[in-house]
Amino acid sequence: xxxxxxxxxxxxxxxxxxxxxxxxxxxxxxxxxxxxxxxxxxxxxxxxxxxxxxxxxxxxxxxxxxxxxxxxxxxxxxxxxxxxxxxxxxxxxxxxxxxxxxxxxxxxxxxxxxxxxxxxxxxxxxxxxxxxxxxxxxxxxxxxxxxxxxxxxxxxxxxxxxxxxxxxxxxxxxxxxxxxxxxxxxxxxxxxxxxxxxxxxxxxxxxxxxxxxxxxxxxxxxxxxxxxxxxxxxxxxxxxxxxxxxxxxxxxxxxxxxxxxxxxxxxxxxxx
Length: 272
Hints:
By secondary structure, this protein is α/β, with parallel strands linked by helices. It has helices spanning about 10-25, 60-70, 115-130, 160-165, 165-185, 205-210, 225-235, 250-265; strands at about 5-10, 30-35, 35-40, 45-50, 75-80, 90-95, 95, 110, 135-140, 150-160, 195, 215-220, 240-245, 270. The chain folds into two domains: about 5-185, Aminopeptidase (3-Layer(aba) Sandwich), CATH 3.40.630; about 195-270, Rossmann fold (3-Layer(aba) Sandwich).
């Protein structure tokens, strides 16, 4: 298995995280990509650097394969998170678009999720951020790029002050390094993944379940919640076992989705 971490020179939070990973792991330079060193973080775990916005870098996995002669099974993008609220956040999320693609990727197209490593990273991120003034959570599936590898983003939000925060960069880097070690050693949670359905952007219900050891792949927020989006999320979540609905039992839209999934024989869990 080949895992590739992606640092973006245009993204101050990405560089913050990436430089902390280098400081922590003291990796050797294995080769070059994009005229930058390729760092061997662990065996079969590399870090590359790119110089254009990662959310618009479609087919990066193919370019890595052509240049380095490896096929990335998993891509992890180190990134900033932006929001109008400027809330300080540390997040992970899958990639793709349920509707159009103003922020990269392809319209109505998802990228394969990586439920086990992403969820393990969230759990370590929560532990590392306890003494920081940041909210730690999933985000639901959104934005690009489009790639064929299993993929997730790990992000610092939501302002330039937070992106440059060395304590946040250190916490995120440490969480990802620890999660990689757990994942590679097989010490991560083996619970088969769920697709999360319903709720808002920061997925508090799914985050709560993940911190208890559950693993999530794609997550479909309420504003994109329809049968086609959920079925697509199931197709692009490897090893998926069930759908977990952020349950609002009195809400007709949720009841309708629940019935449609059950009629198709899909295992549905009500997450209360």
